[in-house]
Amino acid sequence: MLLSMNDSAMRVLFASAAREADASAVGGVGFTLCEEIAREMQGGLWRMDAPQGELRVALELPAER
């Protein structure tokens, strides 16, 4: 996990070894719902490009509301 922050936003990058279930989890309803919540908070949630066998997901939210 990597945490970074600038004046306007906080970003968390989660990286882990991918499992077969991870591919469907990131494309599933729960992930989509979390994306919507992050957007409502003026942020974002997305899957990032990663080497084979690794899963990377980033979450960005405003530093202040």
What keyword list fits this structure?
alpha+beta, four-stranded antiparallel β-sheet, 4 strands
Q: What is this entry, summarized?
A:
Helices cover 29% and strands 42% of the residues. It has helices at 20-26, 29-40; strands spanning 2-5, 9-17, 44-48, 54-62.
Give a count of the beta strands, DSSP E runs of length 2 or more: 4
pLDDT averaged over residues: 84
Beta-strand residue fraction: 35-45%
* Apparent shape: flat
| Strand ordering within the main sheet | 1-2-4-3
| Most strands sheet | 4 strands, antiparallel
Total helix count? 2
Distance between the termini: 24 Å
Could you give the order of the helices and strands?
Answer: EEHHEE
The rounded Rg comes to 12 Å
Structural class computed from helices and strand pairing: alpha+beta
Low-confidence sequence ranges: none
Helix percentage = 25-40%
